[in-house]
Amino acid sequence: MRVLITGGAGFVGSNLADRLLARGDHVAVIDNFETARRDNLTAAGGLILIEGSIVDRGLVDRTFDEHRPEVVVHAAASYKDPDNWYGDAQTNVVGTVNVVQASERVGAGRLVYLQTALGYGLRPIEQPITLNHPLQPGGSSYAISKTAGEEYIFLSKLDFISFRLANAYGPRNLSGPLPTFYQRLTSGKPCFVMDTRRDFIYVSDLVDVIASAVDGRGRRGPYHVSSGKDYSIKELFDSTVKALGLQLDRDVEVRPRSADDVATILLDPSKTEEDFDWRVSTPLEVGVAATVDYYRSHGIEQTYSHLKPIEEKT
Hints:
The chain is an alpha/beta fold. The protein contains nine helices and 14 strands. Strands 3-2-1-4-5-6-11 form a seven-stranded parallel β-sheet, sandwiched between helices. Helix 5 crosses helix 7.
């Protein structure tokens, strides 16, 4: 199968590329390496890398014309600077429009989109969140622009799957609390955790369901990819400490959440479980240990967040 992955050198995209290449698919990757690492991709037969941005309409059109993908997985996203509204809008909205229209033009059989659960907003009106929950992505530029991109996909005539994701983690991830905990714990810096809970999903479980969508499973529309269970951020911290084999001389500080932070973001994955015959299979401690092993062997130079640091919030 010919598959094109935008953001294919990033965290999720590169793990998916590895899976598809291992089974013999031909994979074209577009990535501008804004938040991706070059060692995430290994040269392999069937892999073609196009370096550039999906904001470049000419580049996108040429890539689609040359590679004629049967399936497109749109994993590219701008998220590293919460104040870069323009960059977020360019990549997550204009870039998505470019990818959608190119997919329509070459007759791609399916588009798979990766959307954030933050599209439901910072104050969801139900827990767990069902697919009937209204979209209200006012909490960040990232959520606003990713949801706008999703709306353009809905507007298209493509056969699409939009996966609204819980907090994905695993090898190659450089955003969120886990790489931050690792970086601070291994450099002797103090840590704190927020009194919040999140739904975590290990990357190999996520790739399982994306690969199934690439193969045509699922019905046109949105799905949740989540464990269906939320964990406290302290549980994630404790698992990181355990994986590092550390003995801390004091308990980690637990800070109360700020007024604009949600207590939990818990997604209902029942439709995905039914339509894809899929379940999360990696326990949190197992996934954290594997991720820590990756950080040890590859190092972390920089981590990212689409939200403002706590001390900057007012």
